[in-house]
Amino acid sequence: MAAPSWIELFIARLEPLDLAYMVTGSVATMVYGEPRLTLDVDLVVALERSRAQDLLHAFPESDFYRPPLEVVLLECERTARGHFNLIHHATGMKADVYLAAADDLHRWGLANRRRVVFEGRELPLAPPEYVIVRKLEFWREGGSEKHIRDLRAMLEAGVVLDSAFLETEIRRRGLQEAWQEVRRVR
C-alpha cells in the first residue's frame, strides 16, 4: 500500500471544517513553477479561538503530533506570526500551519486564493503575488537560495501576475533588493 499524500493527510481533514485556508510555500511554487522535493506543506488558516478544538479533533493524537489546545489558543491570540505544526506519526509528513490573524497579506491571500486541481484534488492555492512576497521575506530573513530558485521557476513558467499589486507590496515591505535578485539573469 502506498503511503498517504499530504493532500490525504492534511487537506482532506481541513476541508470538512469549513475554515478559510490556503496552500502556500513550496507546494504553491511547484504548482505555479516546477516540481521539487519538499518535506512539508505550508497552510495559512483563518482560525478563531472558538474553532481551535475543532481543528485539533480533525488531527487525532493517535495519528498526529499536534500541540496542546492551550498552545493553539495562545497562537490564535497573536496578531502576527501565529504558527504551529502538525506531524503525521507514521510518515513524518508535516504541515506548518500559519494563522491569518490580523496579518493583512494573509487576509488578502485568503480573499484572493485560487481553486486549482492538483494530484486529482481541488486545492485552495495562495495567489502567486502572495507566494512571491512571502518567499522574498523568507529569503531576506534566512538567506536560503531555495526561495530565489522557487520564484525564478514561477517566473520562467509564465505565471500571470497583478504587477501593480505586487510592486506596491514589494516596495511597502522593502523587498526591492530581493526582487531584483530573483529577476537577475543567470
Structure description:
This protein is α+β, with helices and mostly antiparallel strands. The chain has helices at residues 6-14, 25-32, 52-57, 69-77, 104-111, 128-142, 145-156, 163-172, 176-183, and strands at residues 21-24, 40-45, 64-65, 83-88, 94-99, 114-118, 121-125. It has a single domain (6-183), classed as Beta Polymerase, domain 2, CATH 3.30.460. The chain is globular and about 50 Å long. It has 9 helices and 7 strands; from the N terminus they run H-E-H-E-H-E-H-E-E-H-E-E-H-H-H-H. The strands form 2 sheets. A 5-stranded mixed β-sheet has the order 1-2-5-4-3, sandwiched between helices. It has a two-stranded antiparallel ribbon with strand order 6-7. The model has no long low-confidence stretch (mean pLDDT 92). A hairpin with a 2-residue loop joins strand 6 (114-118) and strand 7. 46% of the residues lie in helices and 18% in strands. Helix 6 runs antiparallel to helix 7 (145-156) and helix 7 packs across helix 9.
